[in-house]
Write a structure and sequence with these properties.
Four copies of one chain form a homotetramer. The first copy, chain A, is mainly α and 203 residues long. Chain A is built from nine helices and no strands. Chain A binds a DNA duplex (21 and 21 nucleotides) through α1 and α3.
DNA sequence: CATGAATGAGAGTTCATTCAT
DNA sequence: GATGAATGAACTCTCATTCAT
């Protein structure tokens, strides 16, 4: 043992490198302009090399997807066990933010990009999307059971909360905040989230 | 009025036709798959003809952009003069929605797409973005002067409001609502907006 | 008129040029090594140009096929109306030879090459193959009715005759006559046919 | 006998395995689609391994060639010693057939394929071709000395005989018998040979 | 002995763009 | 004003081949 394991690890590292680079390019220049060639160039390998690690472009796309959701769930698991569901909800928002801004390329791919993928993969994609959405819905329900958000439809409220956080994130990621001075944008994003949280608190 | 004017008018009409067709195609098959060729085919002219009216693809994109913002402002102008600024704010939200779902291809281009354009054009783009954002900020300020949203930063609040509405719209447009039954999605979008409005009301 | 017609003619000529060149390359270097690129190079155009005249490689292949059979039938139509069916049979052999050696690339494609084509096209191909084979069978039958080839199955005999002529042609075209001095090969091919004819005569 | 010999034997066995596998693939999927990779996969070795036993694809092809001719001669050696040269000639035809249909991939490579090989190898190829052709010529000469085929050029006649048998075989192998019902084709091939034999008999 | 990793060259194909007519 | 013809550059993907290990 040793050799086989090292090889396996190296292979994983290379796949990782390709995946990450691809995701970065998606974010930088957009998905359409990200080609196998440009990925290869950026990692300074030949295009053919990529095919040693991924069968075709579709499989690469799929792997990025999986990887992205995987990491997304890892972030979610850091949600602390708190007694107050409202506090938990706000923590969830912060975790969501953290994931998004730590991994903007992944976020983009998961929640913004029009994914050109095979149906099988899209389906799995949506299962994961639904699963993460359930976490939110469950939490909102908890809040309601604790007396908050009375007389509000759980689904609609959950969706609205998600939409708000997603809206803040995606305006930032897709660079629609140029009407604010650059120095202020980051802070603004967090302030927006805080303000939304404080509003929710008061409902 | 003579020949020159007629020519000018005809030229405008042709540009119009191209622009509209391009926008339709963006919506139908997506931006990446809309090529000069496909536009040309749809209007039953040769690809070369398009170059008589637009210098290159970039300029065409830019023109669509302008057109999109132009229409956006037209929608805004339908905002009725109401005494209650809060009611006006909510109306603004509905108008925003109406524009977005009447013209999803335009909305996508304006607020979601990673703009594949030259810097000059992007600047003008942002001037228009800022201008429309000002409408919102002014309105929020009015609300505050009328006693609402006390102790809240106008900029941050405006941004948060925009983000929420944009979030709802873009989750729909970019098809991230598959966790809800298709039949419910449209309604959900409007319910979300309503819920957000009612929450704002109570702040 | 005039312009449109000239254009049409020019288009036909270009298609012709591509077709002929492709067929030549098939013969020279084999079908597998004939690429759109090599064809383009030989006619000194860019590869993209070929796609102006043929949708894809398959369509090009198909067109060559059609063209080849078309010409094949043209040769057949030069078969003179003779009273003696045996003489006609021998003439047919000569015409077949003439076609093959006038158009070796076409012959190769039609009767030797393993055609990598869509099924629709292959079917049509075989209909034409069958049609030309019928000409032979009919003629053999005539001969039999005139008293020749008694007690022989028409089908089998026809097939055998075809096989012989095809064998002579294909050994030549596929260069399997290197055991004979080059200077003699051409003559040998014709002598073989003559000898076969004379043998048939005596049956 | 020691280590060196065992190594040599093992090397031969491996070469054998590669050769046989390649030939199988030629037959199964055709020559163009048989790549070093597909061969490697089938024998469950890496592509690089093949290069330990053959310098390059060309050399591998050459080896298959040699092997094919070798086997061809083995078939020829089963030709029984008969007194009647005419009977021997007919037996030769049957042996040729047997070889062809037992080993269609080999036959194809030897007598149909446009050989993608270096000149040195092609030369040797033709020496073997000539050698086998001599067997036929000698036999035809014997027949003539026994009173058959009077007043016929030995070379031409031999060539014509070969061409006929080759024609029958290659129409079958290259699938140009689709005008006959599939069930009949095999029989037809043999009937054709028989008819040719019987005609020769009567000359 | 065997191979995993890597690649240059080349396959078919599409697209934005130009230009002579 | 309109376009047919042409192309360079880019795309995804495969293959024979090399080389360090």
């Amino acid at each position: 043992m040793g050799i086989a394991e090292r090889r396996e690890r190296e292979k994983q590292e290379m796949q990782d490198l390709i995946l990450t680079t691809a995701a970065e390019l998606f974010l930088e220049v957009g998905m359409e302009k990200t080609s196998i060639r440009t990925i290869a160039e950026k990692i300074e390998y030949s295009p053919a090399t990529i095919y040693l690690y991924f069968k075709d472009k579709n499989e690469l796309l799929y792997a990025i997807h999986q990887r992205a959701f995987q990491r997304f769930f890892q972030y979610f698991q850091t949600l602390p066990q708190l007694d107050d569901p409202m506090e938990k909800l706000q923590q969830l928002g912060h975790i969501y933010f953290k994931f998004a801004f730590d991994n903007p390329a992944f976020y983009d791919l998961m929640f913004i990009l029009k994914a050109p993928m095979d149906s099988d993969q899209t389906e799995e994609h949506w299962e994961m999307g639904a699963r993460s959405h359930d976490v939110l819905t469950d939490l909102v329900l908890e809040c309601q059971q604790a007396g908050h958000f009375q007389n509000k439809d759980t689904q609609v409220l959950s969706h609205m909360i998600w939409a708000t956080v997603h809206g803040i994130v995606s305006l930032k990621i897709r660079e629609r905040m140029k009407m604010y001075p650059e120095a202020l944008r980051d802070q603004m994003v967090y302030d927006s989230l805080e303000m939304f949280n404080s509003i929710l608190e008061s409902v």
